[in-house]
Amino acid sequence: MIEVGINGYGTIGKRVAEAVDSQPDMCIVGVSKRTPDHEAASAVDRGFELYAPDAETEATFSAHELPVAGTVETLIADSDVVVDATPAGVGAENAPRYERAETPVVYQGGEDATIAPTSFCARSNYEETVGRASTRVVSCNTTGLARLLSPLDDRFGVESVDCTLIRRGGDPTQSDRGPINDIVPDPVTVPSHHAPDLRTVLPSVDVMTKGVTVPATLMHLHSLTVRLDDTPTAAAVESCLDDESRIELVASAHGQDSCAALRESAHDRGRQRGDVWENCVWTESITVDEGQLSLLQAVHQQADVVPENVDAIRALAAATDARTSRQLTNDALGVGLNSPLA
Ligand code: NAD
Questions:
Q1: What's the maximum distance between 2 C-alpha atoms anywhere in the chain?
Q2: Residue 225: phi, psi to the nearest 5?
Q3: Which among 73, 143, 151, 313 is least buried, having the fewest CB atoms inside 10 angstroms?
């Protein structure tokens, strides 16, 4: 069993903790949190040992009658691999702790790419991370792009990509984020930071990205134009994407006609928090004109990086190869939104 510590039990950390807990070859040593809030209480309810970033926080937890197993130093020392899911920038502050303890660590996309020797998307570059001391799972948007472009590049060759990312303003609980009533070029500069981020996992792809933020919390939506080396039919592209376990082909005609409908499908299939781990590509949008592919896809920002974190743990632990890890992760989670077993 790979013993895993989760440092930062928030939006991403709690999901990764539950995903790790469901794997046949992993167990949770404990989770760390800074605030003695309802999420901390829910971690205790789930049976996860709670750790605090420092002695002062430990005392605050105890004052709130939340049992604490120790400080993060102990969690790091007792774990085979740590997932750092603290807020963007805090991972960099934590880096010396992992180095001192020589505990391999998975960072998140909010950290700078220079924090680790590799950036990670299991479909694109799992092997580069095997046995390393650390890696960084790329952001939710970049994960969505890498998952889509890797199989297209393998099957048809990708010459260039132009993508507009219609970004959610914040997660559902982030009531301090916006816009409330606007459409904001974000960033206004082109390319957006997503293009260089994508090249950390797919260095050879010629990609242009533009970002726009809208008053929504449910998912991001990507509008892509991909210039392919080959000239496949739309049906061949559909078949290529259909072969990908973390890409779900969805149809407006079947009622999955919006981000809200996709999240509702996930709720209906019994998914915790209505999480959608897969890229959702609308079949009706897949159009190819002389090697130029256009399509629309949605990615659930809180969920798509979760299976990637699980695979990144196996890669750091040199536990198995990419195909086996992805299969193990998918089977344990029940990846496949529209499959009979979802
Ligand atoms: P979050 O604010 O929801 O959760 C962070 C957690 O870390 C909180 O529970 C907080 O109590 C805890 N924390 C804060 N400081 C800490 C410290 N010093 N030690 C231990 N715990 C501490 O943040 P999030 O949205 O889960 O983001 C985490 C990372 O994942 C960021 O790098 C972010 O960019 C990335 N990410 C976020 C999303 C998303 O949609 N929210 C998607 C992909 C990647």
A1: 66
A2: -120, 125
A3: 73
Q: Which helix (H) or strand (E) holds 163?
A: strand 158-168
Residue 170 CB less than 6 A away from ligand 1: no
Structure token pair of residue 153? 């590049």
Residue whose CB lies within 8 A of the most ligand 1 atoms, among 6, 9, 11, for a mutation test: 11
Distance, C-alpha 281 to centroid of its chain: 17
pLDDT at residue 229, as a whole number: 98
* Distance (Å) from CA 247 to ligand 1 centroid: 25
Alpha-carbon torsion, ordered 169, 20, 48, 78, to 10 deg: -110
| Cβ(83)–Cβ(18) below 8 Å | no
Bridge partners (DSSP) of residue 4 are 28, 81
Q: Is 88 in the pocket of ligand 1 (CB under 6 A)?
A: yes
DSSP 86-138: SSTTHHHHHHHHHHHHT--EEE-TTS-GGGSS-EE-HHHHGGGGTT-SEEEEP
How confident is the model at residue 340, as a pLDDT? 72
**Residue 141, pLDDT score:** 98
- CB-based contact 325:81 (threshold 8 Å): no
pLDDT of residue 228: 98
Nearest CA to ligand 1 atom 32: 110
Q: Which pLDDT belongs to residue 110?
A: 97
Counting as low any pLDDT under 70, the low residues of the chain are 341-342
Length reported for the chain: 342
Catalytic residue among 140, 163, 259, 280: 140
Residue 341: per-residue pLDDT = 52
With contact defined as beta carbons under 8 Å apart, do 142 and 122 qualify?
no
